[in-house]
Design a protein that fits this description.
Elements (H helix, E strand, L loop, with lengths): L1 H5 L28 E7 L7 E7 L4 E6 L2 E6 L4 E6 L5 E7 L4 E6 L4 E6 L4 E7 L4 E7 L4 E6 L4 E6 L5 E6 L4 E7 L4 E6 L4 E6 L4 E7 L6 E7 L4 E6 L3 E6 L5 E6 L4 E7 L4 E6 L4 E9 L2 E9 L7 E3 L6 E5 L25 E6 L3
Antiparallel strand pairs: 1-28, 2-3, 3-4, 4-5, 6-7, 7-8, 8-9, 10-11, 11-12, 12-13, 14-15, 15-16, 16-17, 18-19, 19-20, 20-21, 22-23, 23-24, 24-25, 26-27, 27-28
């Protein structure tokens, strides 16, 4: 997800009190209210980061940042380790059953295979151009590296590190999710305004669905029980899609500059992290055909990427502090504000104490 990676679209902090159209149904009474519960100092000077991923069994959070993945204890809210030498790392997929992790190293066009016990890189696997999103599919013991510039997915045998397939895609892939019941992988194709469905048995795309009125979707989440996908789009909407038919069944307005999306089946809440205006839009799935925006949570203008702990229902966002925006250059082009060294952190929000 290159927009988060380079932080090139940072805009001044604009905290909004509400987002979206008026509620279709009164769900607020039953919906937990989210608020800040922790801020985990990480530090470092790398002004770029991307995906966060969780291992709810081992209670670890993996946070990509520059050329490293920082490991956080999710119960203690503290840094407990680091995986280094990962040039241009975007994402980290956890294969808890194998004791392995897989980092997509965009600058090297490789996936690094990591021993989760020692946090050491064991091997590196060649991929297509600019591996970005990455997904472990436990039913098949395979890792999918989605190559942003390569417009493809590299499929890796997780146990052996062998490349078993390369799947052509119709454009630039972003987030991916897996449905174990349907045996399907779904991925946003950002530059084509589409979602593709991939058959992991045949290693091929079996469906391509337009998501209009959604445009340039990045984050993707799934409700497995109701067969619904939630795609967050750059034109400020969340699109709910039937994962069996590809039909767009509802949309709601979200914040500016969305990137990640997550869904919590226990609360029926979908989350969109919006780095452009420094918010998380929290949406309730009232039914498989109806969404309601129930809360807009202020975060930080750089907090674009996010994950969710299904055990505690907390959400985690990477962020940093930035200085004053410098004047435009001689051609009138805007400049990025400088990151304050050492300010990289993880923001934690929850509905409990």
């Amino acid at each position: 997800m290159s927009r988060a990676w380079f932080l090139s679209a940072l805009s001044p902090l604009l905290v909004v009190a509400a987002c979206g159209s008026p509620a279709k149904r009164t769900t607020q009474e039953a919906v937990p209210t989210y608020h800040p519960v922790a801020e985990i100092a990480v530090g470092g000077d790398a002004g770029f980061w991307d995906y966060l991923s969780e291992d709810p069994v081992a209670r670890r959070l993996y946070v990509t940042n520059g050329t490293r993945v920082v490991v956080i204890d999710m119960d203690a809210d503290s840094v407990v380790g680091e995986i280094s030498d990962l040039p241009g790392v975007h994402g980290f997929a956890v294969a808890h059953d194998l004791g392995l992790g897989f980092a997509s190293d965009g600058r090297e066009n490789k996936v690094a295979v990591v021993d989760l016990a020692t946090l050491q890189v064991q091997s590196r696997v060649d991929t297509g151009d600019n591996p970005d999103g990455i997904l472990y599919v436990p039913d098949f013991k395979e890792v999918y590296a989605f190559n942003g510039r390569g417009h493809s997915a590299t499929v890796i045998n997780a146990a052996t590190g062998e490349v078993v397939a390369t799947i052509p895609l119709p454009g630039k892939p972003e987030f991916a999710v897996y449905d174990p019941g349907a045996k399907r992988i779904y991925n946003n194709i950002e530059d084509q305004n589409e979602i593709v469905a991939i058959d992991p048995t045949a290693h091929e795309v079996v469906a391509t669905w337009p998501i209009a009125p959604g445009e340039a979707a990045s984050g993707l989440a799934i409700d497995l029980e109701h067969h619904r996908l939630f795609a967050v789009c750059d034109n400020g909407i969340m699109v709910m899609v039937n994962s069996q038919t590809g039909e767009v069944v509802d949309t709601v307005a979200i914040g500016e500059g969305p990137d990640a999306a997550r869904f919590d089946p226990a609360t029926q809440l979908a989350f969109s992290s919006n780095g452009g205006d420094g918010t998380v839009t929290i949406v309730h799935e009232d039914s498989p055909s109806e969404l309601t925006v129930v809360h807009t949570l202020p975060t930080a203008r750089s907090a674009r990427t996010m994950t969710l702990d299904p055990t505690t229902h907390r959400i985690y966002l990477s962020a940093a502090d930035f200085g004053e925006t410098p004047p435009a250059d001689s051609m009138g082009r805007p400049r990025r504000p400088p990151m304050i060294p050492g300010s990289f952190k993880v923001l934690v929000y929850g509905s409990g104490s």
